[in-house]
Amino acid sequence: MPPIFPRKTVEWRLEEPPAFRKLSLSLVEMAILAGIVLRVLRAFTFTYGRVGWVYYGLALVGGTFVLLGMTTAHLANFTVKSWVWRAPLFALVEVAGEMATSLLLIAMRREPEGTARADFHDWPSMSLRALVQSELSICLWALLLAGAIIFVRRSGMGQPDNEPR
User: Fold this and answer.
1) Closest by alpha carbon to 99, among 134, 119, 127?
2) d(CA 149, CA 80)
3) Does the CA dihedral 25-70-95-146 come out positive or negative?
4) Could you tell me if 39 and 31 are in contact, meaning their C-beta atoms sit under 8 angstroms apart?
C-alpha cells in the first residue's frame, strides 16, 4: 500500500496551448472574430474599393479565405462526427458577429449596400443574405473537409509506412 504522505512527489506540468490554439478551441470567440473581420473587410472593400474588379476580386477571395480558414482552424480541434452541429452553429454565431458589426457600421454611416449607404431598414435583408451565404459556404466546406479526411483514412495514406494498414 502506498504511503499517505510520500517523501517524493510527482511533478505535474500543464502545458498551455499557444494563444491562437486556445482561441481556436472556442466556437464563439472564433466565429465572432471571423464575423467582425469579414464585415469590416466588406465595408472597406465597397467603401474604398473603387479601383476596379481586381481589388474587389482580391477582397472576395480574402474574405472567403478568412471565413473558411477560421472555420477550419476551429473544426480541426474536434472529431468529424461533432462537425455535424459545430459547422452550422459556427456559421450562425459568425453571422451574429457580422451583423452586430454591421449595426455599428450602419450607425456610423459606413456600411455600404450596393452603391449607396445602408440604413437600418436594410439590415434584416442583409442579415438573411449573410446567413444563407455563410451557412451554405461553411457547411459545404465542412462536408468537403470531412470527405477528404474520410478518404485519406480509408485509403491508408494517413498512416506511417511502419504501421499495419
Assistant:
1) 127
2) 8
3) negative
4) no
The C-alpha atoms of residue 6 and residue 32 are separated, in whole angstroms, by 48
| d(C-alpha 149, C-alpha 11), whole Å | 37
Residue 3 burial by Cβ neighbours in a 10 Å radius (0-12, 13-18, 19+): exposed
Cα–Cα distance between 48 and 64 in angstroms, integer?
A: 19
Residue 38: predicted pLDDT? 93
The residues that bridge with 123 in the sheet, in sequence order, are none
For residue 126, the one-letter residue type is: M
Which amino acid makes up residue 66?
A: V
Residues 6+ apart with CB under 8 A from 158: 152
What is the C-alpha to C-alpha distance for residues 39 and 61, in angstroms, rounded to an integer?
14
| Chain segment 5-33, per-residue pLDDT in tens | 445 555 556 677 788 888 999 999 999 99
Q: Which residue carries 478518404 as its cell?
A: 151
In 10 A of CB 45, how many CB atoms?
18
